[in-house]
Automatic annotation (TrEMBL):
Protein name (record): Transmembrane protein 244
Keyword Membrane among UniProt keywords: yes
Highest taxon listed in the record's lineage: Eukaryota
TM ranges: 25-51, 75-97, 104-130
Keyword vocabulary terms for this entry: Membrane, Transmembrane, Transmembrane helix
Length: 162
């Protein structure tokens, strides 16, 4: 039908342009991630030095627990590092990918949010695991010591009583 030919021609026009293979896209994405996190750490270390903070922690891209206040230097360093990283990343992304910078910027940002959530979850999981295993050790050791030291006492219940 004539209308279907018109739709096909219209459809072809919408996708005119040079397509990029997925290997190139993945390589560009990895380069953009490397640029983003390298810049984050470099800018973060310069800002930590400029603000003369005592301790530079490696979790700067993932630190969102610092109290947001204008008087908190660590918060200002984290915020300034983040904003400068985004600004400089945009310039370097343009040099690497040459087009569709917005796509890579959005993807890197979404991956950063996911990585931050994962790191935070892993930290919470590690704290929960270490606390849980510490609790288990405390209970077992305490019970064993109480059992062996208080075995002669009549008031101490034995394991068979439980």
């Amino acid at each position: 039908t004539p209308s279907s030919g018109f739709k096909a021609a219209k459809h072809e026009m919408a996708f005119k342009g040079k397509t990029v293979d997925s290997k190139t896209v993945l390589l560009n994405l990895l380069l953009c991630l490397l640029i983003f996190y390298s810049l984050f750490y470099m800018i973060g270390s310069v800002c930590f030095g400029a603000f003369r903070l005592d301790h530079f922690d490696g979790l700067i891209p993932f630190d969102f627990k610092t109290e947001p206040a204008e008087s908190n230097s660590k918060y200002l360093v984290n915020l300034l590092s983040l904003e400068l990283t985004y600004f400089c990343s945009g310039i370097l992304f343009a040099a690497v990918v040459k087009r569709r910078v917005w796509d890579y910027a959005l993807t890197v940002t979404l991956l950063h949010v996911m990585i931050t959530s994962l790191v935070t979850s892993l930290l919470i999981l590690c704290v929960a695991f270490s606390t849980g295993s510490g609790l288990f050790l405390m209970i077992c050791n305490g019970q064993l010591i109480a059992y062996f030291t208080c075995q002669s006492e009549q008031s101490y219940a034995t394991f068979s009583y439980y």
